[in-house]
Request: fold
Amino acid sequence: MGLNPVIEMLGRRLRLAVIGGGLGSFIGAMHRQAARLDDRYEIVTGVFSSDSEKSKQAGLELGLAPDRLYASVQEMLEAEAAREDGADVVAIMTPNDSHYQYSVAAVEHGFDVICDKPMTNTLEEAEALHKKVQETGLVFCLTHNYTGYPMVRQAKAMVDEGELGTIRLIQVEYVQGGKAEEGQDLPPELSWKYDPVRGGPSMVMGSIGTHAHNLARFITGLELAEVSADIGSIVPGRVVDDYAGALLRFENGARGTFWITQAAAGVENCLQIRVSGTKGTIEWMQEFPQTLTFMPLHGSSQNRTPNGPGTLPLSAHSSRIVAGHPEGFHEGFANIYSDAAEAISARRTGKEPNPLALHFPNSWDGLLGIRFIDSVIKSSEANGKWTKC
Amino acid sequence: MGLNPVIEMLGRRLRLAVIGGGLGSFIGAMHRQAARLDDRYEIVTGVFSSDSEKSKQAGLELGLAPDRLYASVQEMLEAEAAREDGADVVAIMTPNDSHYQYSVAAVEHGFDVICDKPMTNTLEEAEALHKKVQETGLVFCLTHNYTGYPMVRQAKAMVDEGELGTIRLIQVEYVQGGKAEEGQDLPPELSWKYDPVRGGPSMVMGSIGTHAHNLARFITGLELAEVSADIGSIVPGRVVDDYAGALLRFENGARGTFWITQAAAGVENCLQIRVSGTKGTIEWMQEFPQTLTFMPLHGSSQNRTPNGPGTLPLSAHSSRIVAGHPEGFHEGFANIYSDAAEAISARRTGKEPNPLALHFPNSWDGLLGIRFIDSVIKSSEANGKWTKC
Amino acid sequence: MGLNPVIEMLGRRLRLAVIGGGLGSFIGAMHRQAARLDDRYEIVTGVFSSDSEKSKQAGLELGLAPDRLYASVQEMLEAEAAREDGADVVAIMTPNDSHYQYSVAAVEHGFDVICDKPMTNTLEEAEALHKKVQETGLVFCLTHNYTGYPMVRQAKAMVDEGELGTIRLIQVEYVQGGKAEEGQDLPPELSWKYDPVRGGPSMVMGSIGTHAHNLARFITGLELAEVSADIGSIVPGRVVDDYAGALLRFENGARGTFWITQAAAGVENCLQIRVSGTKGTIEWMQEFPQTLTFMPLHGSSQNRTPNGPGTLPLSAHSSRIVAGHPEGFHEGFANIYSDAAEAISARRTGKEPNPLALHFPNSWDGLLGIRFIDSVIKSSEANGKWTKC
Amino acid sequence: MGLNPVIEMLGRRLRLAVIGGGLGSFIGAMHRQAARLDDRYEIVTGVFSSDSEKSKQAGLELGLAPDRLYASVQEMLEAEAAREDGADVVAIMTPNDSHYQYSVAAVEHGFDVICDKPMTNTLEEAEALHKKVQETGLVFCLTHNYTGYPMVRQAKAMVDEGELGTIRLIQVEYVQGGKAEEGQDLPPELSWKYDPVRGGPSMVMGSIGTHAHNLARFITGLELAEVSADIGSIVPGRVVDDYAGALLRFENGARGTFWITQAAAGVENCLQIRVSGTKGTIEWMQEFPQTLTFMPLHGSSQNRTPNGPGTLPLSAHSSRIVAGHPEGFHEGFANIYSDAAEAISARRTGKEPNPLALHFPNSWDGLLGIRFIDSVIKSSEANGKWTKC
Reply:
């Protein structure tokens, strides 16, 4: 990464308003760090909790100006839209059931939006939100952060450049163990995940399944045609689902599998993908993100690393550092934020963004994710019948 | 491994007759090395090729006595059955379509049998052979050699001992790249694999799918209830299938996935399994067979190694060496041979074998493998419908 | 990490002045990102280049106020010391030969200091600077950033807690390939590394040797007694050294080795350490920083991960994220900055810092690093004679 | 590996007489399995213990003919030398202090010899034995078995072919934990290791140091010029040494380090080597022997595997199996035995051996190993002074 394109275009940092992500929240801190890392955003306001006192307390502890700590999201959006120096962008990191309403409200007030995944809880909401984003021309960035890792982007670029040939086989899995224990409670700020009304029709798909789905689409550039799936709950006494498996058929004829669970006792955060084309196979594991294994059809298996030999421009664009110095989850997340910042600044100034900065997930990706959840559930209910995506 | 139980029981090595595995054959050399490693067998005769001249030549090059090099399998079985010092055991390593006939002939002549997988090409043959083996009480050993690795046996023993709790989730995959190239010919001695008549109803299932299926059953001790599958050919112009995916439901309610292919360009021999129970998860990869990763529900991930801390008796029984000295494919294969030797010697002498030696795959395992192939094909033909196994 | 202790103590972020690290500089961007990540610093001014025009340009591109872009370090220190809202801390990331002068100047103007390693180019300077820091009571933080990784801190905490028993054996190595090519030029901004006057008496020791030395001391808490060393240049035509090896004797009787080079063609950034005590051995590799392997005397080898089972408080303090989400070089570097920020804020407010925040390297560590360089060179010149450290 | 060259040349297997390696012995079983794997030897006799009753019992349990079980080595050598069908080769796997006498006796009776390392306990013996071997022209094979691994031989071949360019830097280490516990007793059959009279002047050098030394020489083809060393005992109360470190200078100017210990608690059998040349670096670890990492100066890091892409003839010669099927310690050991068998058969028949079979360690390698032990001890006694090898 070179100069700061936001300062270059706007003459200042983007002003960010935050919804959700109170002080105890892991994902809230992550969003703020991601916004800060490349110095393209300044957090100017936020509603961090539905409890307005807690929200204000959080804002003060984050060093925000007291006069920009509002009692509600609605109040914040109106006040900031009215300020000369008001926020440019709204970042949403609330439980799933409010992504839709806050996104729509932000868009309606003219803000660009950065929103946590899944985009919405229903297919109807997803379609409506995508339509609204398209109509307004605003930037909508969905934080499928795993697509921000340099070696995921290297993988995508290798596929785009034809280094793998025609893609034939795709295996993607996302296995966690955090919800493996029977009767285990979640911390209060995450308890909505066990509530199908707030967390959406599928805990496991909303939490990690859309990440896996998005990762496969991002790297391969392929869209799913149909799916044969099984989804359910393996931990006794649970009302939300905790595993899903699917067989995949892509539009180009490629085949694949998809396997996700949060009930694999002892596993940390194992998101993995293997993609085979006519010219070779690549493998990537989130827990060792700085290695992309490339197994060419003829030739030794190779370990590609960030800014190592063979680095393609999209990957180089996504790394801050010389080879051998690991970047991690924060940097990948920050890449999504920083690319969105460039797109937003370009939109606001009418300037041309770096095309390499336009690979962050958007509302179309979000809509496809919700459609995929819907198809998996339908196929599972239909005894594994192949179902359109 | 301690003293030689075959010499202890019989006062001599078992006399082995070989069918198939001519001099250029990888699998033939492997069988012979496996038989030799622990000094429990002496190869005394063999029909190595359907061409009787080539067969005799091979026998001479292997140092066999000229008067025990026969013109046909039939002649060998009769002559050896009639000799005072005739063979005890017949090992079969021919193309799939002759496993049934040679196994039946060997059993009918009173020989114990060691046979390559898959057991037969049809379900009818598998049922008939299993019935015949049961009726005769002879030993029938199927060389699902991957179950011979010390850490696979450690995994099985950990499940048996309850170290994983109740098994919930099983992922097994076997990915190879050897048949990824379009238009690629096989060496002549393997060309039968591309011939559905000789290789059986499914190349990929017969070659590697039954290994993956057997491995999952061996480690977990669970039987499959039903399967939802997709099988086909991804490499253009191929008449045999080269990938299969399946979602799995086990009799105890556990869920899982199964993914196999021989068309993943650049991949060598990636057989992997992950099994999660209520108390933890284990992972094993054939390409690094000396490590079994154990992730307990509470506690750090552990690397279990052969004869390292926590080694259970079945694993210790299956390793010849102190910790840190890798054993490989040969030793795993030899474990199958050596355990079968102990069972055969016990049967022939009426003595008690070591119970740890009785974990080699048998005709029941072979029959279930063929049933699994059948179920996968039927489910795939029925649009992914869940199908009994 | 919880609330922002700097805002808690000071009611605002620390104001940071930067010396060096112009726009093309890798290390400059790293320092700024490290300062920014946890929101404890605001960069308010800087002299980024000895060319005052370039320096101002850089400041503008970083979004700094034009009236705080000075023509020289001297001018900056004076002006900022005089301002009501002047900088609190000076961060120095210039070539090695100016660390001493800028550090002394900063300290003399009353600033706390964060300085890149090695602390100085001569032992005399190191002793003088350390003495001055001690006299003033200011905070001096040396960016041996590798000690900021969560699993390095876990290693230190495990040693401190006695989990390894008495330390006996230490192997540390730092192997890079970036300077393996004969006749290869460095980019202009790094060309001082090949100049013994600017880069110091030993390129390889100054660049990476002090990191390895510091890492071993940090984790084990042991001090070196004496060293037997060999240092030189293996790439023909080079006037600075590019490898050094040493045998180590620690004050408690532990033994070890030290091996560093920048001439190992193809290697990226391989800093590794293995420490054995009476109760077990730990291994850590910078290129896979989120794993700390712990091999207990009795028990399976374990993979410790950030915030995974067994995490000790110092490691938990040093990680922002739940287990399975890799942190990297930036986060480790940021930990050094953030801990220094806490110490500085506590000093300025007379409050008690969190004791876990006091593990950043300081001027004593810097002095010992320079002494180590001196001892290695002396031993090597004395034909490997054991030499005091 | 193709046809059996011993049967091709001799018309039969080599007849092997064994000295040492009684039934409880790990190394005895290993030698016998290594001899058996490729069917080039038939064990015909042996003296397995200095207790003649135990020795005979062992012979019977190994299935040897009672009339070839002798009361002493002397008797065996005489009787077998006199038989028409007597042994061809003597394999020695006794404690170190008898290697010399048995080797000399075997050679004097005209037997080819396979002997465990270290070759002798004193430099005088080593020189005398090497001289005697040279004078007789018999084959003397020293079982530095690690040089038999396919990827070690691939490494050697890559160096020989110039794929690494000029070798500059060599790091070799051999770290074990089996002797880390204070006051820990060895099993009776290994207790001689703690006895300097029987085990030789250095336990750690004789047990593992000569392996590491030989491995570095084998792969690089370079000879050591001088060494600066430190050797001693780190476990309290021990009379034999358990660690040694050395800095290395090779005849071509290359530099390196050597570090060995048996006191690293919890480590299994970590023999590792890294070799850097002008064109790249290779790394190999014994615990994962099927991977050779090659990091070219320009280009991605590669994982070379047995019979994978880029396999050179010496490596292909040393593997029995297609890529992806791990071979281990036994197969490496067997390669030494099998190559020696080919050399012995060629000598006895006056035929030409395959030149690829002539890379097993011999008495010259053995002599250099003993010289290296001597130099390490002398340098350590001389306060680290550089000492000729």
Observations:
- The two ends of chain D are 37 Å apart (CA to CA).
